[in-house]
Amino acid sequence: MPFLLPMSVLETDDVSLVLAFGKLSVLEACTLLGRSVERAESPSERVAVLHVDHIDARRIAELAGVHKCAPLTSQPDSTEGDITALVDLMASYLDEKSNFSLSGYGLGEDDYEDLVRSLLDGLRGSGLRKVRLLRPRGDELLSEQVVSRHALDVVAFPYHGGYGLGPTAWVPDSASMRQRGTLRPVRHPDIALSPRLARTLVNLADLRPGQTLLDPFCGSGTILAEGLAKSLRCLGLDSSASRVQQARENLRWSAGGIADRGYDVRKGDARETSRLLRGTRVDAIVTEPVLLPRLDARPKTATARAMVEESAVIYNDALASMAESIGPDGRIVVVVPVVQTMDGDEVTLTLEGRKVGLRHYQPGPVGFEYPVRLSFESTRWVKRAVYVFEPR
Ligand SMILES: C[S@@+](CC[C@H](N)C(=O)[O-])C[C@H]1O[C@@H](n2cnc3c(N)ncnc32)[C@H](O)[C@@H]1O
Fold first, then answer.
1. pLDDT in tens, 342-376
2. Global pTM?
3. The last residue of a domain, from among 124, 139, 167
4. Contacts of 240 (CB under 8 A, 6+ apart)
5. Using an 8 Å Cβ cutoff, are 330 and 273 in contact?
6. Domain count, the chain
7. Cβ contacts of residue 64 below 8 Å, gap of 6+?
8. Most CB atoms closer than 10 Å: which of 47, 166, 248, 270?
9. How far is the CA of 28 from the centre of ligand 1 (A)?
10. Helix (H, G, I), strand (E, B), or coil: what is residue 250?
């Protein structure tokens, strides 16, 4: 996983994250970093700041739902603030011919220009007269470009009346995530989620290699493929025989062409999960049922409510069976739809965990309200929200 600066720069009290999925990404980070996260702030929709105690940078390397991770090296309390600490840090990693960039998240144009100027002046003042400033389109150098252009990128965002600033120290391996999405034998962009989102959901279960992951609505197997990549034992169910075939094909490809290595996919109804597992319990269940009919336009609110209520019956029946199939320390991660209506409303599906002995998972001192919404999705009419449950 690409650390662009030594891991040790992330062993700090405040870490900023550029989020791929909004609040869901914060939940993932709080899950992987555990109780070391004391507090989380969201100064802009795209950025979170985690206040941490004894961070383990290796866990940062597991994140999938973030685009960049940067220590907060400068948090001036005025717009005129001091960026000396940041410039000093940058100067220690740059040489005369290096590229650097400023990625602004929620900054105004003038603020962006002022910051670029201050950084350039600061670096020149440190003797780096020829460092090259990359001017990204839209004020953001994307994480893959940071890697391909060998740039020292600075993340900047409005923070407590001034700016939060820090050098991008780590980015996820987006190229291999994209490859898993585009090269697998069966692709279903209409029903399948992206490998990045699937990995983020699997990370919410926080399993160790060798533990068992079940997706009882597995479709073409995107979630299970991410489980395999994390060395989990993967079980899949789907009520459609052709989907079972597709998932097997994709997983065989993921397992390097070896059939049934670390995975088992069968035809079956998710509402009968516990019967189909014959009493064995799994360590986590991660699934995205989405049982709505295909929508070609925003429906009326009343239509959306009727559709969601109808699918809620299967969701809740399946949840009851999942609750009987999960181990005492396990988690159940379920994606639910959020339908955008032509009346400007959002209709979402409510899962009743309490009735089946489940409670909402909370990763530590930072509290999350469920379902946790995803931001920045490209889908127009049906967005996503996520529940994470654990046994009570
Ligand atoms: C949205 S798709 C899942 C997509 C999957 N995440 C992927 O990456 O391809 C939902 C799947 O649930 C399956 N399904 C619908 N009702 C089911 C049921 N009662 N039990 C098991 N699977 C069901 C459908 O056949 C479909 O493949």
1. 999 999 999 999 999 999 999 989 999 999 999 88
2. 0.95
3. 167
4. 267
5. no
6. 2
7. 20, 28, 172, 177, 196, 199, 200, 203
8. 166
9. 24
10. helix
